[in-house]
Amino acid sequence: MTIKSTIHVSLFIFISRITGYIRDIIVAYFIGTGKENDAFIAAFKLTNLFRTIFAEGAFNSVFTPIFSEIKNNKGNRSAKVFAIQVQSYLIIALILFSILVIFNMSDIIKYTTPGLNTESICLATKIAIITFPYLSLVSLAALYGSILNCYGKFFPYISTSCLMNIISIIGILYLNNKKIDPVFALSYSILISGFIELLWMIFWIYKENIHIISFQLKKNFYINKFFKRIIPAILTSGINQVNIWIDMVLVSFVPCGMSYIYYADRLVQLPLALIGTAISITFLPKISKYSSKNGISSESFFNNKNTSKYKNNENINLKTKQNNKKLNILFNNCINYSLFLAIPSSIGLIFFSKDLLYLLFAYGAFDNKSVMQSSLALNYMSIGLPAFIIIKIINNFYYGKGDVKIPTIFSLIAVVMNGLIGWILLNILSYVGVILASVISSYTIIFLSLFLLKNKYNIIIYHKIKKEIVKYIISSILSLLPILFYNKLVYNQYITFFLEFSNYNRFIVIIKIIIVAFSYFIVLFLFKGNIIKKIVEYIINNKIIVNILSKSK
């Protein structure tokens, strides 16, 4: 994994999330957290549920390792043929599935959100029929994005979500002026954005001279391998969607509960995408590359029945051991870099939960009650942020090795735990009990996964990385001291008068966040954190500050 690639991906994701927050501010202003927004969330959630199967989830996790293996061992031409064949099967599957779902949309909405009343279910059904074709468009765009990722071209697909946000913003503002209901304006805008995203990806595919816009239904070794892996991967994704569906069912019985969780989730998604998604995007092709060197797949080397074939070949065994060592280092680097940002993000989101929601969404229909209830959801969700990120990395490790069974088993365990604990805690803690159940099950899965990684693949978290994690926790807590000191001695005594001016209050929140971020880096530097030392060394060695100052003259 190259740090440069991860930084670039994170930057693109950050820009996309900023446009996403602008979209959410506008949606919060026009729609708020009422029944209309619950109906939209229920409808669009359905599209996103299946998106994890046909797009970035199961499909991508199986397609990318095989495509990367063919590209590394057979060449670009064979890889393109494989992509054309997979694309053809995907198009057929999407058409048939979309027709089936759209014609049964009303019943599906009823079963996925039984807590909604008849009026909300009717509205959600109308919205879902408009937005569901977006699934087919974005799934094809995701296929082209996976191909470009294997060639080190990360920008095109990451920017598609930015396109969707911009089009949604323009659409809701324009159509609202035309007296169209804001929730339907948003729905039509999302559908239009799907067409534009697909055209954008086709443009980049041809720009990179990857001509795969064709149709070819043929079976061969790699297609059979793809279908062999996609079934358990879909099962895993399906189990995960059952997990989300259980959450939706439970939360739907709490008025406005889905809306509160939605806005909390939007804040958690920023670090989750910047850290977890960015590292996973650059991690998966790398792990596939190491696993497919010399034609040795994870299935052949780590399966006891097949390892005897390679005992007499010392060169292959040596190369495999070297690759496994590289994988161990790669895995530890991913854990280290992700927690370097995930831990302070988690603690910061808890500390600034009300401030952030007020800063970003407290406009129009998003009132004080919405802020308070959403902040409660955000507090519990933020506790699980490091776990959500690590699970992404661990699952990509398994998929990169071609091991799709383990994530399936763990997903099944998570569903059972989440359902039972969520049902119990819902009656005690209301909608936040459902969030807490997800957090508990996520951390449980991490410990089980790490145990299995050690025993099956000899992949462990190094002792030095564990020491770094402790530094991140302590530094994150200590970085809050300046703000606590400020609040205690200055805030209440001197500037209470100014807080009635909302713009001034928002400015103070931004300053506080900047102070905490700088404090974290300073404290971590004093604790001799390895990553912060590397950053400082990079700045000094490349004379970045000197160059900036010289350019400003």
From TrEMBL:
**Superkingdom, taxonomy of origin:** Bacteria
Alphabetical GO CC annotations of the entry are:
plasma membrane
Q: Which GO terms describe its biological process?
A: cell wall organization; lipid translocation; peptidoglycan biosynthetic process; regulation of cell shape
**What Pfam families would the database entry show?**
MurJ (PF03023)
Keyword Signal attributed:
no
Listed pathway(s): Cell wall biogenesis; peptidoglycan biosynthesis
Q: Which UniProt keywords apply?
A: Cell inner membrane, Cell membrane, Cell shape, Cell wall biogenesis/degradation, Membrane, Peptidoglycan synthesis, Transmembrane, Transmembrane helix, Transport
TM regions (residue ranges): 81-103, 123-147, 154-174, 186-206, 266-284, 329-352, 372-394, 406-425, 431-453, 469-487, 507-527
Record's InterPro entries?
Answer: Lipid_II_flippase_MurJ/MviN, MurJ
List the membrane topology term(s). Multi-pass membrane protein
Q: Report the GO molecular function annotations.
A: lipid-linked peptidoglycan transporter activity
Q: Which CDD domains match?
A: MATE_MurJ_like
- Locations listed in the record: Cell inner membrane; Cell membrane
* Keyword Cell cycle among UniProt keywords: no
Q: What is this protein's function per UniProt? A: Involved in peptidoglycan biosynthesis. Transports lipid-linked peptidoglycan precursors from the inner to the outer leaflet of the cytoplasmic membrane.
The Swiss-Prot or TrEMBL record describes its family as follows: Belongs to the MurJ/MviN family.
Q: What is this protein called?
A: Probable lipid II flippase MurJ
- Its source organism is Lyticum sinuosum
